[in-house]
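Much of our argument rests on the idea that a fold can be written as discrete symbols. The record that follows shows the chain in one-letter code together with its fold in token form.
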Amino acid sequence: MYDDIQYEATEGIATITIDRPDVLNAFRERTIAELNDALRTANADDSVYVVVLTGADGGFCAGADVTEMADWHEELSREEYAGYLWSVQNVVRQLLAMETPSIAAVGGPAIGAGCDFALACDLRVVGPDALFREGFVRVGLIPGDGGAWLLPRLIGESKAKEYLLTGRDITPEDAVDLGLAVELASDPNDAALELATELLDLPAHAVRRTNALVDSEQSFEDYCERAIEYQWECVNDDEHHEAIAAFSENRAPAFDREY
């Protein structure tokens, strides 16, 4: 189905793997088109309850393939470049907009836009060889894919500026200490799947709507209005009824789902 990524949806979990390990899973235009398509597919699939984003050979994504960048200013018009950048931004846009929770399994370098793809996920698990780097300034660019919007919201403005303005690496240990990553695991893909399974075992509508409620841009009153609507949906949801019955009967819930 794809050339630069792998897509697998099994038992409620969609795993999207950037598959260009010879260049540390750096992306080209085809990769971005396929990522956007895979995210649309996962988001539209009612049998997908969690999305895991990762990279081949235990890595993640080293950003744009620099071999394609050298002559962009000569080969592309401003409008053509804007269209390309919009498509990269749209990977971040889709990840942020999805109510279905997403987990980044970061086993290697997450650099530039690759870093932003990880930051746009709802949760992150890191391995011992992981690193996050908003390294745009090192090559005379700005964080055009969302990094200067995402990172301050995750770790605070002052600390984010340290990494954005210097291009320094965020180590796996620092990522956990900063609250950027859920955990440091020897195998981040396995740990991400365990975390995905933990989410999968919960009432799905409540998980999705809780994810949607986390919005730092909304006012408290807007939050409360949305909460009334979402809570009423949950009160009438079959999985809520089953979870309450299971709790009362001291057993695990058995949700009626087709994967």
Summary: The mean pLDDT is 96. The first helix runs from residue 29 to 44. Residues 30 and 170 are 28 Å apart (CA to CA).
